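Holo prediction. Input below; ligand is flavin mononucleotide.
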Amino acid sequence: MEQLIDAAITLAGRAPSAHNTQPWAVEQEGEKVRLRVDPARTLPLADPTHQDTVLGLGAWVEAFAIALQRELCLQVSGRGAALVVEIQVGPEPYRDFTPREVAARQVDRGRLVKDEVSLHHALENFGLLATTAVAQMMGERTWRKLHNRTALDIARTPEILAETVSWLRLDPTDPAYHRDGLNADCLRISPGLARLGRRLLNSPGLRRTAGVWQPLLARLYYSRSLRPPSRVVLCAGDTTDPAALIECGRDLLRCWLLLARAGLRVSVNSEIKDNPDTAAKLPPGAFAVFSVGVSTTRVPWSSRLQDPGRG
Ligand SMILES: Cc1cc2nc3c(=O)[nH]c(=O)nc-3n(C[C@H](O)[C@H](O)[C@H](O)COP(=O)(O)O)c2cc1C
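Structure of the complex:
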């Protein structure tokens, strides 16, 4: 069993996390696993309540259960960066998803094409499978308005911009390029644009004027999806209790895996729910905002700490 747990920990590392920070620290003691937050892998400015961090840990827990194909018994204590999840492997088999599905899931920031029929079918199944979350659709105009507003706010907040930049991997020779963060391949940025991005972001003068050029770049970046795909918001009754938030993270991964099973991928815009002004325009308890559609190009693999060198 201990060897199976070891292998499951490796596969669970494919769980999604904000900025691909992989904020989990995992300790294995025989057949028990303790999951903590790695404080060096959090986003204290963009995610001051640690909601995204805890959602990432919840996604890790779900991926771990799938990898082991066993139901888990969880004990959650602490909150935010001090959160601890004690995990015990239960006797019941896990049936909803397969390890292969965890390994194959990907976020896609390229152009997505609408497929409402598959989306509605997947969301119907999500309604049956979710333990706490409810999926709602968001209109395109609302999304655009909120998205443009957050792009401007991030650019005008140099601290948040700097934190985001610290997780961007725009230089392929950076040793972290294949370890964590958001690299140019996954962001779908060409080598030329990545070079320009590095120059803009490394120049203190240009960085100070980010309020002017960053929103323009953001618009350009998203203009690829002029006919944008469907927008989904996941909401839950309780997103403040740490144990409930872990369940939200598990539901988030279940939702994305059901969408993947239907041939769909997601592109995430957490800043819309992390920004207090735009969050106020979302349904109550919104904890995830993402677009859904069919990929139109091959999706590059995002990096993970356990697989350095994977390109
Ligand atoms: C809670 C959470 C928030 C996320 N927020 C964003 C986001 O705002 N923008 C984005 O492009 N991706 C976001 N993502 C997706 C991650 O960046 C992505 O999971 C990570 O880069 C790993 O890539 P993969 O999911 O393709 O394996 C988020 C993921 C999670 C779990």
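The longest strand covers residues 84-93. That is the main takeaway for now.
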